[in-house]
Protein backbone atom coordinates (compact mmCIF):
# COMPACT_ATOMS: atom_id res chain seq x y z
CA UNK A 1 0.00 0.00 0.00
CA UNK A 2 1.10 3.54 -0.75
CA UNK A 3 0.37 4.72 2.75
CA UNK A 4 2.43 2.09 4.53
CA UNK A 5 4.82 3.77 6.95
CA UNK A 6 8.39 2.94 5.93
CA UNK A 7 10.50 5.22 8.13
CA UNK A 8 10.11 7.65 11.01
CA UNK A 9 12.76 10.22 11.76
CA UNK A 10 12.92 12.66 14.68
CA UNK A 11 15.24 15.49 15.62
CA UNK A 12 15.67 18.20 18.20
CA UNK A 13 14.81 21.69 16.85
CA UNK A 14 14.09 25.02 18.59
CA UNK A 15 10.82 26.79 19.37
CA UNK A 16 10.05 30.52 19.44
CA UNK A 17 11.78 30.94 22.81
CA UNK A 18 14.89 29.11 21.62
CA UNK A 19 13.90 26.11 23.72
CA UNK A 20 14.40 22.64 22.24
CA UNK A 21 11.40 20.76 20.96
CA UNK A 22 10.68 17.61 18.97
CA UNK A 23 10.29 17.51 15.18
CA UNK A 24 9.10 14.28 13.57
CA UNK A 25 9.05 13.14 9.94
CA UNK A 26 6.88 10.21 8.91
CA UNK A 27 7.76 8.63 5.54
CA UNK A 28 5.49 6.32 3.54
CA UNK A 29 5.97 3.79 0.74
CA UNK A 30 4.91 6.19 -2.03
CA UNK A 31 7.71 8.59 -1.08
CA UNK A 32 5.45 11.04 0.78
CA UNK A 33 6.60 12.62 4.03
CA UNK A 34 4.66 14.36 6.81
CA UNK A 35 6.49 16.66 9.21
CA UNK A 36 5.27 18.10 12.51
CA UNK A 37 6.83 20.15 15.32
CA UNK A 38 5.54 20.08 18.89
CA UNK A 39 4.71 23.33 20.76
CA UNK A 40 5.39 24.01 24.44
CA UNK A 41 3.70 26.11 27.16
CA UNK A 42 5.08 28.34 29.92
CA UNK A 43 1.99 28.72 32.06
CA UNK A 44 1.31 25.03 32.02
CA UNK A 45 -1.46 23.27 33.92
CA UNK A 46 -0.51 20.70 36.54
CA UNK A 47 -2.69 18.07 34.88
CA UNK A 48 -1.21 18.33 31.38
CA UNK A 49 0.40 15.35 29.67
CA UNK A 50 4.10 15.26 30.49
CA UNK A 51 6.70 16.85 28.25
CA UNK A 52 9.88 14.75 28.44
CA UNK A 53 13.01 16.89 28.90
CA UNK A 54 16.55 15.57 29.32
CA UNK A 55 17.28 17.31 32.61
CA UNK A 56 20.94 17.41 31.64
CA UNK A 57 21.95 20.89 32.82
CA UNK A 58 24.96 20.92 30.46
CA UNK A 59 22.66 21.29 27.46
CA UNK A 60 19.98 23.99 27.13
CA UNK A 61 19.66 24.29 30.89
CA UNK A 62 18.27 20.77 31.11
CA UNK A 63 15.57 21.44 28.48
CA UNK A 64 17.02 19.27 25.70
CA UNK A 65 14.68 16.69 24.17
CA UNK A 66 17.18 14.06 23.04
CA UNK A 67 15.52 11.40 25.16
CA UNK A 68 12.13 12.13 23.58
CA UNK A 69 13.76 12.00 20.14
CA UNK A 70 15.36 8.65 21.01
CA UNK A 71 12.00 7.33 22.15
CA UNK A 72 10.53 8.13 18.74
CA UNK A 73 13.43 6.45 16.96
CA UNK A 74 13.90 3.35 19.07
CA UNK A 75 10.54 2.65 20.70
CA UNK A 76 7.76 4.16 18.59
CA UNK A 77 9.16 3.86 15.05
CA UNK A 78 9.74 0.06 15.08
CA UNK A 79 6.11 -0.45 16.14
CA UNK A 80 4.72 1.77 13.39
CA UNK A 81 6.75 0.68 10.39
CA UNK A 82 4.51 -1.41 8.17
CA UNK A 83 1.28 0.17 9.43
CA UNK A 84 -1.08 2.27 7.36
CA UNK A 85 -0.76 6.00 8.04
CA UNK A 86 -4.52 6.36 7.54
CA UNK A 87 -5.15 4.42 10.76
CA UNK A 88 -4.83 7.49 12.99
CA UNK A 89 -6.97 6.04 15.79
CA UNK A 90 -5.10 2.71 15.84
CA UNK A 91 -1.69 4.37 15.78
CA UNK A 92 -2.56 6.81 18.57
CA UNK A 93 -3.98 4.04 20.74
CA UNK A 94 -0.89 1.93 20.13
CA UNK A 95 1.36 4.79 21.33
CA UNK A 96 -0.80 5.39 24.41
CA UNK A 97 -0.53 1.68 25.29
CA UNK A 98 3.19 1.54 24.54
CA UNK A 99 3.75 4.48 26.88
CA UNK A 100 1.69 2.81 29.58
CA UNK A 101 1.43 5.79 31.96
CA UNK A 102 -1.66 7.97 32.56
CA UNK A 103 0.14 11.17 31.48
CA UNK A 104 2.51 9.91 28.75
CA UNK A 105 5.50 10.51 31.00
CA UNK A 106 7.48 7.43 29.94
CA UNK A 107 7.85 8.15 26.22
CA UNK A 108 6.94 11.83 26.57
CA UNK A 109 3.82 13.54 25.24
CA UNK A 110 6.19 15.57 23.04
CA UNK A 111 7.49 12.37 21.39
CA UNK A 112 3.99 10.93 20.95
CA UNK A 113 2.37 14.13 19.64
CA UNK A 114 5.10 14.68 17.04
CA UNK A 115 4.39 11.24 15.60
CA UNK A 116 0.61 11.63 15.88
CA UNK A 117 0.58 14.89 13.90
CA UNK A 118 3.23 13.68 11.43
CA UNK A 119 1.07 10.64 10.66
CA UNK A 120 -1.97 12.85 9.93
CA UNK A 121 0.10 15.11 7.70
CA UNK A 122 1.56 12.31 5.59
CA UNK A 123 -1.79 10.58 5.27
CA UNK A 124 -3.46 13.80 4.08
CA UNK A 125 -0.73 14.29 1.53
CA UNK A 126 -1.06 10.73 0.20
CA UNK A 127 -4.78 11.33 -0.26
CA UNK A 128 -3.95 14.64 -2.02
CA UNK A 129 -6.22 16.27 0.49
CA UNK A 130 -5.68 19.65 2.12
CA UNK A 131 -4.95 18.98 5.80
CA UNK A 132 -8.10 20.78 7.00
CA UNK A 133 -10.21 18.63 4.71
CA UNK A 134 -8.48 15.44 5.82
CA UNK A 135 -8.98 16.40 9.47
CA UNK A 136 -12.64 17.18 8.88
CA UNK A 137 -13.14 13.65 7.54
CA UNK A 138 -11.19 12.19 10.43
CA UNK A 139 -13.33 14.10 12.95
CA UNK A 140 -16.56 13.19 11.15
CA UNK A 141 -15.48 9.53 11.14
CA UNK A 142 -14.70 9.58 14.86
CA UNK A 143 -18.00 11.29 15.67
CA UNK A 144 -19.98 8.95 13.41
CA UNK A 145 -18.50 5.91 15.17
CA UNK A 146 -19.62 7.45 18.43
CA UNK A 147 -23.13 8.12 17.13
CA UNK A 148 -23.45 4.49 16.06
CA UNK A 149 -22.68 3.16 19.53
CA UNK A 150 -25.66 1.66 21.33
CA UNK A 151 -26.30 0.53 24.86
CA UNK A 152 -27.23 -3.08 25.66
CA UNK A 153 -30.90 -2.54 24.69
CA UNK A 154 -30.09 -0.83 21.45
CA UNK A 155 -30.58 2.80 22.45
CA UNK A 156 -28.14 5.23 20.90
CA UNK A 157 -25.39 6.31 23.28
CA UNK A 158 -24.22 9.30 21.35
CA UNK A 159 -25.78 12.65 20.69
CA UNK A 160 -23.97 15.46 18.95
CA UNK A 161 -25.15 19.03 18.81
CA UNK A 162 -24.93 19.65 15.07
CA UNK A 163 -21.98 21.84 14.26
CA UNK A 164 -22.96 25.23 12.98
CA UNK A 165 -20.69 24.73 10.03
CA UNK A 166 -18.01 22.13 9.57
CA UNK A 167 -15.56 22.82 8.12
CA UNK A 168 -15.48 26.52 8.88
CA UNK A 169 -13.00 29.30 9.45
CA UNK A 170 -12.65 30.19 13.12
CA UNK A 171 -13.08 33.58 14.76
CA UNK A 172 -9.63 34.60 15.98
CA UNK A 173 -9.19 35.64 19.62
CA UNK A 174 -6.09 37.78 19.44
CA UNK A 175 -3.62 38.78 22.13
CA UNK A 176 -3.20 42.57 22.40
CA UNK A 177 -1.56 43.04 25.81
CA UNK A 178 0.43 40.36 27.59
CA UNK A 179 1.12 40.01 31.28
CA UNK A 180 1.77 37.31 33.83
CA UNK A 181 4.27 34.61 32.95
CA UNK A 182 4.38 35.73 29.32
CA UNK A 183 5.72 39.23 29.87
CA UNK A 184 7.94 39.33 32.90
CA UNK A 185 5.11 39.51 35.42
CA UNK A 186 4.13 43.11 34.57
CA UNK A 187 0.38 42.55 35.04
CA UNK A 188 -1.53 39.96 37.07
CA UNK A 189 -3.60 38.84 34.12
CA UNK A 190 -1.87 36.93 31.33
CA UNK A 191 -3.69 38.02 28.17
CA UNK A 192 -5.94 40.88 27.16
CA UNK A 193 -7.37 39.79 23.84
CA UNK A 194 -9.38 41.20 20.95
CA UNK A 195 -12.54 39.54 19.67
CA UNK A 196 -13.45 40.97 16.24
CA UNK A 197 -17.12 40.10 16.77
CA UNK A 198 -18.42 42.35 14.01
CA UNK A 199 -16.34 40.76 11.25
CA UNK A 200 -18.06 38.85 8.47
CA UNK A 201 -15.13 36.80 7.25
CA UNK A 202 -11.83 35.53 8.57
CA UNK A 203 -9.79 37.88 6.40
CA UNK A 204 -11.88 40.84 7.51
CA UNK A 205 -11.34 39.81 11.15
CA UNK A 206 -7.61 39.70 10.58
CA UNK A 207 -7.55 43.09 8.90
CA UNK A 208 -9.54 44.60 11.77
CA UNK A 209 -7.16 43.01 14.25
CA UNK A 210 -4.03 44.43 12.67
CA UNK A 211 -5.59 47.87 12.66
CA UNK A 212 -6.48 47.61 16.35
CA UNK A 213 -3.04 46.21 17.22
CA UNK A 214 -1.22 49.05 15.44
CA UNK A 215 -3.51 51.70 16.89
CA UNK A 216 -3.03 50.29 20.37
CA UNK A 217 0.73 50.65 19.87
CA UNK A 218 0.32 54.37 19.26
CA UNK A 219 -2.24 54.75 22.08
CA UNK A 220 0.24 53.18 24.51
CA UNK A 221 2.92 55.56 23.35
CA UNK A 222 0.60 58.55 23.73
CA UNK A 223 -0.10 57.52 27.29
CA UNK A 224 3.56 57.49 28.13
CA UNK A 225 4.32 53.79 27.80
CA UNK A 226 7.57 54.28 25.93
CA UNK A 227 9.63 51.51 24.42
CA UNK A 228 6.89 48.93 24.77
CA UNK A 229 8.22 45.49 23.90
CA UNK A 230 6.21 42.45 22.94
CA UNK A 231 5.69 39.36 25.10
CA UNK A 232 6.09 35.70 24.20
CA UNK A 233 2.94 35.71 22.08
CA UNK A 234 3.54 39.03 20.34
CA UNK A 235 1.20 41.08 22.54
CA UNK A 236 2.44 44.40 23.93
CA UNK A 237 4.05 44.03 27.34
CA UNK A 238 3.88 47.52 28.86
CA UNK A 239 5.00 48.03 32.44
CA UNK A 240 1.52 48.75 33.64
CA UNK A 241 0.55 48.13 37.22
CA UNK A 242 -3.25 47.91 37.02
CA UNK A 243 -5.23 45.38 35.03
CA UNK A 244 -8.03 47.84 34.26
CA UNK A 245 -5.52 50.27 32.78
CA UNK A 246 -4.87 47.66 30.07
CA UNK A 247 -8.60 47.52 29.35
CA UNK A 248 -8.81 51.32 29.12
CA UNK A 249 -5.96 51.40 26.61
CA UNK A 250 -7.70 48.77 24.48
CA UNK A 251 -11.01 50.66 24.61
CA UNK A 252 -9.16 53.80 23.52
CA UNK A 253 -7.71 51.85 20.59
CA UNK A 254 -11.20 50.61 19.62
CA UNK A 255 -12.51 54.17 19.65
CA UNK A 256 -9.57 55.51 17.66
CA UNK A 257 -10.04 52.74 15.08
CA UNK A 258 -13.72 53.66 14.78
CA UNK A 259 -14.93 50.36 16.18
CA UNK A 260 -18.04 50.17 18.30
CA UNK A 261 -17.14 48.35 21.55
CA UNK A 262 -19.58 45.54 22.24
CA UNK A 263 -20.88 45.55 18.65
CA UNK A 264 -17.86 45.29 16.34
CA UNK A 265 -15.17 44.71 18.90
CA UNK A 266 -15.04 43.00 22.26
CA UNK A 267 -12.47 41.97 24.83
CA UNK A 268 -11.50 38.54 26.07
CA UNK A 269 -9.30 37.81 29.07
CA UNK A 270 -7.02 34.92 29.91
CA UNK A 271 -6.63 35.48 33.62
CA UNK A 272 -4.44 32.34 34.00
CA UNK A 273 -5.28 32.63 37.69
CA UNK A 274 -3.64 29.36 38.72
CA UNK A 275 -0.37 31.26 38.86
CA UNK A 276 -1.43 33.66 41.57
CA UNK A 277 -3.49 31.14 43.54
CA UNK A 278 -1.73 29.94 46.68
CA UNK A 279 -3.05 28.50 49.91
CA UNK A 280 -6.63 28.67 48.67
CA UNK A 281 -6.57 32.40 47.86
CA UNK A 282 -6.01 34.64 44.86
CA UNK A 283 -3.04 36.94 45.36
CA UNK A 284 -3.68 39.84 42.99
CA UNK A 285 -1.26 42.72 43.20
CA UNK A 286 -4.08 44.80 41.83
CA UNK A 287 -6.20 44.23 44.93
CA UNK A 288 -3.84 46.40 46.95
CA UNK A 289 -1.87 43.48 48.31
CA UNK A 290 -5.04 41.83 49.61
CA UNK A 291 -5.70 38.24 48.68
CA UNK A 292 -9.16 37.24 47.49
CA UNK A 293 -11.32 34.21 48.22
CA UNK A 294 -12.85 32.29 45.28
CA UNK A 295 -16.16 34.13 45.77
CA UNK A 296 -14.42 37.49 45.84
CA UNK A 297 -12.40 36.64 42.75
CA UNK A 298 -15.60 35.56 40.92
CA UNK A 299 -17.26 38.80 42.00
CA UNK A 300 -14.33 40.86 40.79
CA UNK A 301 -14.55 39.18 37.38
CA UNK A 302 -18.32 39.71 37.38
CA UNK A 303 -17.86 43.42 38.05
CA UNK A 304 -15.39 43.64 35.17
CA UNK A 305 -17.80 41.84 32.84
CA UNK A 306 -20.44 44.42 33.82
CA UNK A 307 -18.21 47.42 33.45
CA UNK A 308 -16.47 46.51 30.19
CA UNK A 309 -17.31 44.80 26.87
CA UNK A 310 -15.72 41.54 28.03
CA UNK A 311 -17.34 38.54 26.34
CA UNK A 312 -14.97 35.76 27.30
CA UNK A 313 -12.92 34.89 30.39
CA UNK A 314 -10.41 32.04 30.46
CA UNK A 315 -9.09 30.46 33.66
CA UNK A 316 -10.82 33.06 35.82
CA UNK A 317 -10.30 30.64 38.67
CA UNK A 318 -7.54 28.15 39.38
CA UNK A 319 -7.03 24.67 37.92
CA UNK A 320 -8.29 22.75 40.96
CA UNK A 321 -10.73 25.28 42.40
CA UNK A 322 -13.80 23.34 41.23
CA UNK A 323 -16.02 24.87 43.91
CA UNK A 324 -14.98 28.38 42.89
CA UNK A 325 -15.56 27.55 39.23
CA UNK A 326 -19.14 26.51 40.07
CA UNK A 327 -19.77 29.89 41.68
CA UNK A 328 -18.24 31.72 38.73
CA UNK A 329 -20.25 29.67 36.23
CA UNK A 330 -23.55 30.23 37.99
CA UNK A 331 -22.75 33.93 38.19
CA UNK A 332 -21.61 34.50 34.58
CA UNK A 333 -22.09 31.32 32.56
CA UNK A 334 -25.35 32.43 30.94
CA UNK A 335 -23.90 35.75 29.94
CA UNK A 336 -20.35 35.29 28.72
CA UNK A 337 -17.99 32.59 27.54
CA UNK A 338 -16.07 30.93 30.40
CA UNK A 339 -13.14 28.90 29.10
CA UNK A 340 -11.31 26.18 30.98
CA UNK A 341 -7.64 25.89 29.99
CA UNK A 342 -5.51 24.80 33.00
CA UNK A 343 -8.80 23.51 34.41
CA UNK A 344 -9.55 21.01 31.61
CA UNK A 345 -6.06 20.63 30.02
CA UNK A 346 -7.69 19.14 26.88
CA UNK A 347 -8.35 16.03 28.94
CA UNK A 348 -11.56 14.06 28.22
CA UNK A 349 -11.98 13.00 31.86
CA UNK A 350 -11.54 16.50 33.30
CA UNK A 351 -13.88 17.97 30.69
CA UNK A 352 -16.51 15.32 31.53
CA UNK A 353 -16.22 16.21 35.19
CA UNK A 354 -16.68 19.90 34.35
CA UNK A 355 -19.77 19.17 32.27
CA UNK A 356 -21.26 16.97 35.01
CA UNK A 357 -20.63 19.65 37.66
CA UNK A 358 -21.83 22.57 35.52
CA UNK A 359 -18.44 24.21 35.38
CA UNK A 360 -17.39 26.60 32.54
CA UNK A 361 -19.13 26.63 29.16
CA UNK A 362 -16.15 26.38 26.85
CA UNK A 363 -12.88 24.47 26.56
CA UNK A 364 -9.47 25.55 25.31
CA UNK A 365 -7.98 22.82 23.14
CA UNK A 366 -4.19 22.49 22.98
CA UNK A 367 -2.90 19.41 21.21
CA UNK A 368 0.18 19.04 23.42
CA UNK A 369 -1.83 19.15 26.64
CA UNK A 370 -3.16 15.69 25.81
CA UNK A 371 -0.59 14.38 23.32
CA UNK A 372 -2.50 12.70 20.47
CA UNK A 373 -4.75 13.88 17.67
CA UNK A 374 -7.31 11.17 18.44
CA UNK A 375 -7.76 12.29 22.04
CA UNK A 376 -7.95 15.92 20.87
CA UNK A 377 -10.84 14.98 18.56
CA UNK A 378 -12.44 13.13 21.46
CA UNK A 379 -12.34 16.28 23.62
CA UNK A 380 -13.88 18.30 20.78
CA UNK A 381 -16.60 15.67 20.42
CA UNK A 382 -17.40 15.63 24.15
CA UNK A 383 -17.57 19.44 24.21
CA UNK A 384 -19.81 19.60 21.20
CA UNK A 385 -22.13 16.96 22.58
CA UNK A 386 -22.54 18.97 25.78
CA UNK A 387 -23.01 22.28 23.94
CA UNK A 388 -19.67 23.64 25.21
CA UNK A 389 -17.84 26.04 22.94
CA UNK A 390 -14.38 25.11 21.69
CA UNK A 391 -11.30 27.26 21.12
CA UNK A 392 -8.28 25.69 19.44
CA UNK A 393 -5.16 27.21 20.94
CA UNK A 394 -1.45 27.57 20.32
CA UNK A 395 1.13 27.56 23.13
CA UNK A 396 3.37 30.41 24.19
CA UNK A 397 6.30 28.39 22.81
CA UNK A 398 5.44 27.84 19.13
CA UNK A 399 7.08 27.09 15.80
CA UNK A 400 6.44 27.38 12.08
CA UNK A 401 4.16 24.33 12.34
CA UNK A 402 0.65 25.46 11.41
CA UNK A 403 -1.34 22.25 12.01
CA UNK A 404 -3.70 23.91 14.51
CA UNK A 405 -5.02 26.25 11.81
CA UNK A 406 -6.17 23.25 9.77
CA UNK A 407 -7.46 21.55 12.90
CA UNK A 408 -9.63 24.54 13.81
CA UNK A 409 -11.13 24.64 10.30
CA UNK A 410 -11.52 20.89 9.88
CA UNK A 411 -13.31 20.38 13.16
CA UNK A 412 -15.40 23.55 12.87
CA UNK A 413 -14.13 24.48 16.33
CA UNK A 414 -15.52 28.02 16.01
CA UNK A 415 -12.64 29.96 17.55
CA UNK A 416 -8.84 29.99 17.50
CA UNK A 417 -6.34 31.61 19.86
CA UNK A 418 -2.85 31.91 18.42
CA UNK A 419 -1.32 34.98 20.01
CA UNK A 420 -0.83 38.37 18.46
CA UNK A 421 -0.38 39.50 14.87
CA UNK A 422 3.37 39.79 15.37
CA UNK A 423 6.12 37.13 15.43
CA UNK A 424 6.23 34.65 12.59
CA UNK A 425 5.43 31.55 14.66
CA UNK A 426 2.00 33.21 15.19
CA UNK A 427 1.67 34.45 11.60
CA UNK A 428 2.41 30.94 10.31
CA UNK A 429 -1.07 30.00 11.56
CA UNK A 430 -2.86 33.25 10.62
CA UNK A 431 -1.40 32.98 7.13
CA UNK A 432 -2.37 29.32 6.80
CA UNK A 433 -5.96 30.34 7.61
CA UNK A 434 -5.78 32.91 4.80
CA UNK A 435 -4.63 30.18 2.42
CA UNK A 436 -7.46 27.91 3.54
CA UNK A 437 -10.03 30.70 3.14
CA UNK A 438 -8.80 31.22 -0.41
CA UNK A 439 -8.80 27.48 -1.12
CA UNK A 440 -12.40 27.14 0.09
CA UNK A 441 -13.43 30.00 -2.17
CA UNK A 442 -17.15 30.70 -2.20
CA UNK A 443 -17.72 27.65 0.05
CA UNK A 444 -15.72 29.29 2.85
CA UNK A 445 -17.89 29.57 5.92
CA UNK A 446 -16.88 31.78 8.82
CA UNK A 447 -17.88 30.84 12.35
CA UNK A 448 -18.09 34.45 13.57
CA UNK A 449 -19.29 35.21 17.06
CA UNK A 450 -22.55 33.95 18.53
CA UNK A 451 -23.97 35.34 21.73
CA UNK A 452 -23.72 33.09 24.76
CA UNK A 453 -27.34 33.59 25.84
P1 LIG B 1 0.95 28.71 27.66
O1 LIG B 1 -0.08 29.90 27.58
O2 LIG B 1 1.13 28.14 26.32
O3 LIG B 1 2.17 29.35 28.24
O4 LIG B 1 0.34 27.69 28.61
C1 LIG B 1 -1.23 29.90 26.80
C2 LIG B 1 -2.48 29.98 27.63
O5 LIG B 1 -2.43 30.01 28.88
O6 LIG B 1 -3.56 29.98 27.07
ZN1 LIG C 1 -4.72 30.01 29.16
Compounds present? 2-phosphoglycolic acid, zinc ion
SS-based structural class?
alpha/beta
What does the average pLDDT come to? 95
Please give the radius of gyration in angstroms. Answer: 21 Å
The SSE order reads: EEEHHHHEEHHEEEEHEHEHEHHEHEH
Percent of residues in beta strands: 15-25%
General form: globular
Number of strands: 14
Please mark out the parts with pLDDT under 50 across 5 or more consecutive residues, or reply none. none
Side by side, the strands of the main sheet go 4-5-6-10-11-12-13-14
Précis, in short:
This protein has 453 residues and is an alpha/beta fold. The chain has helices at 66-80, 88-99, 109-126, 131-148, 202-222, 243-257, 294-307, 322-332, 348-357, 367-370, 373-386, 403-410, 424-440; strands spanning 5-14, 20-28, 33-37, 171-178, 191-195, 266-270, 277-278, 281-283, 291-292, 310-314, 337-340, 362-365, 389-393, 414-419. The mean pLDDT is 95.
Structure, explained:
It contains 13 helices and 14 strands. The chain is an alpha/beta fold and 453 residues long. Strands 4-5-6-10-11-12-13-14 form an eight-stranded mixed beta barrel, surrounded by six helices. α9 links the parallel β11 and β12 (362-365). α1 packs across α3 (109-126), α5 (202-222) crosses α6 (243-257) and α7 (294-307) runs parallel beside α8 (322-332). The radius of gyration is 21 Å and the shape is globular. 54% of the residues are buried. The chain binds 2-phosphoglycolic acid and zinc ion.
